[in-house]
Amino acid sequence: MSDFDLTKAGEAARPMPQLARQGFEVRALKSGLLTGLTWLAALIAAVPLISVMYLLLVKGGSRLFGADFAEVLTGLPPAGFELGGGIGPAIVGTLVMVGIASVISIPIGILAAIYLGVLEPRSRLANTSRFLAKVLTGFPSIMAGVFVYAVLVIHWGYSAWAGGIALAVLMLRTVVLAAEEAIAQVPQRMKDAAYGMGCTRTQVIWKVVLPTGLPGILTGVLLAVAGAAGESAPLLFTALFSNYFISELSEPTASLSILIYNFSGMPFPNQIELAWTASLVLVLIVLMFNILARLIGQPKV
Q: pTM of the full predicted structure?
């Protein structure tokens, strides 16, 4: 028998090490303790969300999911002691202004991200733009409303256009930073391979960079839309409010956040109940966009 065979025989006779987890081992105790603390922190962080959702369902769910479901979503807001009514103009106005903001901010944000991430990532202009985009993340939302008020509203009055532009200012920062990060995650070897095959820089951007970074870009867009849908301060200075459905973009426009602000301070139970219902609808809209962003941004296995 060779030395190699003897070695193998000795290894086979040697008892296998114990791989079972020891419950009272120091590392196991530390791991269990840290896991428990993580779950506890997650539960504590979820308490405000769960409590808010429960309160909204109790206060506004009866009206939203009741027999007058269609009237709530399509009816006009009541005035004074009137009963019934709905939040239809506020829902339409919110969707219109968020749509205007998306049309403005998404193309500009993605083009800016392409410049920052592909064309001139280390230029002075790119560094300055990146710094300003990060500064905008801490920019108070009400200041966007004041800015648009000073530029547009003073000269042309309250309108859906002004509200959409104010929301676009707030959406732009999220779209730019998220899209740039998504573009930066595209592997360099994919771009090098495209260049090696003779593709131009434009073809590389359209055929490689944007399709590969699309999930991250869409995630940033949806998060920006969700944030814009819940804004109220900029709309106070730009779109004001209206009790009627929007007929022109150049007139004051209703929104869910301003309806909540107006009705929550009224002494009439019907309006207060509608404010709770509008809050529930707004939270569901924002939650839907956040879930979509989570699903789209999830890595494919």
A: 0.82
